[in-house]
Amino acid sequence: MTNQQHLSLHHLAEQAVRQAMELKLTVATAESLTAGMVSAVLADTPGASGMLQGGVVAYQNSVKADVLKVSAELLANAGSVDHDVAAAMAEGARSALGADIGVSTTGVAGPEAHDGKPVGTVYIGVATAAGTNAFEYVFSGSRAEIRGQACGAALELLIQALAS
User: Fold this and answer.
1) What residues in the chain have per-residue pLDDT under 70?
2) I need a labelling partner for 66 at 20 to 30 A (CA). Which of 22, 59, 76, 116 fits?
3) What does the domain layout of the chain look like in residue ranges?
4) CA distances from 155 to 12, 124, 150 (A)
């Protein structure tokens, strides 16, 4: 991850923490691709303890199924890098950790394709009381750059969810 990318992530995290605190909303994360990066960047921000409920690093499908309650059938049929899996992960984090908003990341950072999806394919889920959705992205760069871009996109989606 570049220094510029690192600074951008911290700026996004500051905005997300500020908005969540103003609205008195809590956030939980479920991360596969980013392996805790989203919650770590949020936690680096002063005030995060007032809005960050916690996070689940669900790198393995067994954790996605057992902890986040993602359907084992969905994981078997779609694989872990999937729109519906990202949505289910976000809802699972929201439910398991008792948060107002759940955010999830799943994707392929490389160097090899995974579950038939090319390197750079990323899905980010967002779950709120109003509903759950997932968004597809295609990023490029090194493994670290793809993970950083996914983290930034997750923070941007969190900010959008807080604004709505």
Assistant:
1) 1-6
2) 116
3) 3-163
4) 6, 10, 9
User: Could you tell me if 34 and 147 are in contact, meaning their C-beta atoms sit under 8 angstroms apart?
Assistant: yes
Q: How far is CA 46 from CA 52, 139, 159, in A?
A: 11, 29, 17
pLDDT of residue 1: 58
Residue 112 one-letter amino acid = E
Q: Identify the architecture of domain 3-163 in CATH.
A: Alpha-Beta Complex (3.90)
Of 95, 94, 98, 149, nearest to 126 by C-alpha is 94
The pTM for the full model equals 0.96
DSSP single-letter state for residue 26: -
Q: Which of 162, 89, 96, 97 is nearest to 132 (CA)?
A: 89
Alpha carbons 130 and 35: distance in angstroms, whole number:
26
pLDDT tens, 12-21?
999 999 999 9
* Residue 162: predicted pLDDT: 97
